[in-house]
Write a structure and sequence with these properties.
Blueprint lengths: L2 H19 L4 H4 L3 E6 L3 H15 L2 E6 L2 H11 L7 E4 L2 H9 L8 H5 L13 E13 L24 E3 L5 H12 L1 H14 L1 E2 L3 H10 L4 E5 H11 L6 E4 L10 E8 L6 H11 L2 H8 L20 H4 L6 H4 L3 H9 L4
Parallel strand pairs: 1-2, 1-3, 5-6, 5-7
Antiparallel strand pairs: 3-9, 4-7, 4-8, 4-9
Length: about 350
């Protein structure tokens, strides 16, 4: 082999390595644009998209909205949707699209880049970030030691007018976990008791404010609301803290944001590269920089002071087990909560 041939081969190998690190070279993608429907937090979406465009040269047009509304829109648009990708704040919304046959399989390398439980069982979506269910409580109204350690006990009549809840953002996943581990009858009884004894809020943000202000003693929510507030204001200045239920309890649930590629996209390769970037080290660093959620890729660290998920004592139910949470919605309707 001549010296010139050796040099050419070296350059080719170096180029291949660079391509594996970046989703698409700028020269190849200068005129390319992807359309992303995103129900994930706007700031988080903007940070990821900016990082992806900087790394790849690919522009991304984002349509923001609630995950449920965007999922309904995608189902209505079907094969005529202009969207290439969907990033949902909750996994059931994207799982519902998978059930309708609207999602393409995610590339195997992308699925293998995340923790095993953070992807769909059928490979149609991959998690973008994770958070856990917790009990937010007002330290001036109740102590950590006085709070129940099992999620079923939070609907007890002894907590009437003290417990707050919201049926969005993790709640249906929570109900699904209850159904899987405790049975449908217990889950329905829990929902009915929660309706009778608790106070329902329109969103987790309003719930967190109510508990912090002392309007309610405690509430069921996701960790990142409090963890974000703690970073911004200082944990020592807050009236609230997070309480964890028993390890392995059906209430110790980890839930995820989830992203997938629309089967109807005309830019399949490019859309798959966006998902690959989402779960890359660089992409995950961009995601967790703006919100107190967990990276789904091993080796990436959040800038927030978060409890290690290995110490959380996760439920046996994983995000991949949740599916579209169809029965959870049906039970919640039967209980009069939605």
């Amino acid at each position: 082999m001549s010296r010139r041939e050796i040099l050419q081969r070296t350059l080719l190998l170096g180029g291949a390595a660079a391509a594996s690190a970046l989703p698409m070279a700028h020269a190849q993608a200068a005129d390319e644009t992807l359309v992303l429907y995103s129900g994930e937090h706007r700031e988080t979406t903007e940070q990821l998209v900016a990082a992806f465009t900087k790394a790849s040269g690919v522009k991304v047009t984002v349509r923001n909205g609630s995950s449920s509304e965007l999922a309904s829109q995608l189902a209505e648009e079907g094969a005529n949707s202009p969207a290439d990708l969907f990033w949902s704040e909750q996994s059931p919304n994207i799982a519902a699209l998978a059930d309708k046959g609207l999602l393409a399989p995610v590339d195997a390398d992308t699925l293998n880049a995340v923790y095993p439980s953070f992807k769909a069982a059928d490979g149609t979506w991959v998690a973008g970030s994770a958070r856990y269910r917790a009990v937010l409580y007002n330290k001036k109204m109740i102590s950590d030691a006085d709070l129940p350690v099992h999620i079923l006990d939070y609907a007890d009549a002894k907590w009437k007018d003290k417990i707050a809840f919201c049926v969005k953002d993790g709640f249906m996943e929570q109900v699904t976990a209850l159904m899987i581990l405790e049975g449908k009858d217990k889950a329905l009884a829990w929902l009915k008791a929660l309706k009778d004894n608790g106070r329902q809020y329109p969103g987790n943000g309003a719930l967190v404010k109510a508990v912090e202000a002392g309007e309610m003693a405690f509430g069921l929510t996701n960790n990142y609301y409090w963890d974000t507030m703690a970073k911004e204001q200082g944990a020592d200045t807050l009236n609230t803290a997070l309480h964890l239920v028993a390890k392995g309890d059906s209430g110790a649930l980890v839930n995820v944001t989830a992203a997938g590629v629309l089967k109807s996209t005309k830019k399949m390769e490019l859309a798959q590269k966006f998902l690959a970037y989402l779960v890359s080290e660089e992409g995950q660093s961009a995601v967790v920089a703006s919100i107190a959620e967990y990276p789904v890729r091993p080796g990436v660290t959040s800038p927030f002071k978060l409890l290690s998920l290995s110490d959380y004592g996760q439920s046996k139910v994983t995000p991949g087990d949740i599916g579209a949470a169809t029965e959870a919605f049906a039970l919640s309707r039967e209980a009069g909560l939605v």
